[in-house]
Amino acid sequence: MNAPNPIDLLFAGMHKLSPGDDALSLYVLRSLPQHRFKVVVDAGCGAGRQTFVLASELNTVIHAVDSYQPFLKRLTQRAKEQGLARLVRPHCKDMKDIPSVFPTIDLLWAEGAAYNIGFANALAGWAKAIRPDGFAVISELCWLRDDRIPDAVKEFFRSEYPEMHSVEQNIQTAEEAGYKLFNTYRLPKEAWVKDYYDILEPRAKSLVNQSDPAVRDFAVETLREIETFTISEDSYAYVFFVLQRRI
Ligand SMILES: C[S@@+](CC[C@H](N)C(=O)[O-])C[C@H]1O[C@@H](n2cnc3c(N)ncnc32)[C@H](O)[C@@H]1O
Fold first, then answer.
1. Ligand 1 centroid – CA 147 distance (Å)
2. 120 φ, ψ to 5°?
3. Residue nearest (by alpha carbon) to ligand 1 atom 2
4. Where are the alpha helices (DSSP H) in the chain?
5. pLDDT for 220-233, tens place per residue?
6. Predicted structure pTM score
């Protein structure tokens, strides 16, 4: 039998696969001026934390798209346990192919996931499929200022996420991609720790001496990310961009 890969080991059983918070997802969802959507897509849904918020609140089918089947398996299992199976439809697909699978989307949701295909690229690609006046709610890691950023934080993101931009730059990117800005919301710091870093940190510590270099490297990288967060002095955050497709 193959040894478990680093992702399966580190994220085993977790329902939150990125910083996030059900209460904020719900708050952002309720801030939209409409509440009835025919086609709702959750891009990079992971194990479905936010999918279940969308499904319970909207009481409509949520198309949950992720390219990693083990996460979708977990999502399907949890949907059953929560009595939401009839509302959650998993699709093992690349999120860049969303427009060809769902050509007319009323609400596109993506928490902590768009960066995988590049924020600008994701927005431009998905715009083709979001109907005029439809909504995109996308959370993205952003710089909150351009000075007084601790050197170690700059250094970490220079290698780990060089495409990270400011909130203003991302708003401009969204406007250029055919959206108007409806609102932004910042994810609170506690949402990085609770049920996320507080689980990952002890796990990563227990894996740093593993013989498998892939596991060891992933554990070390995770601890570096958490250390960066603790010294960040609020220089970056996850920000929700609530966008409406221009007519
Ligand atoms: C950081 S996780 C966030 C998951 C979930 N939204 C959450 O907040 O718990 C990013 C997710 O995007 C998925 N992903 C990465 N690249 C993808 C791609 N090109 N197409 C579809 N899903 C992708 C990963 O498998 C993972 O589940």
1. 30
2. -65, -45
3. 17
4. 6-10, 22-30, 49-58, 69-81, 98-101, 119-127, 151-160, 167-176, 190-192, 198-207, 213-230
5. 999 999 999 999 99
6. 0.97
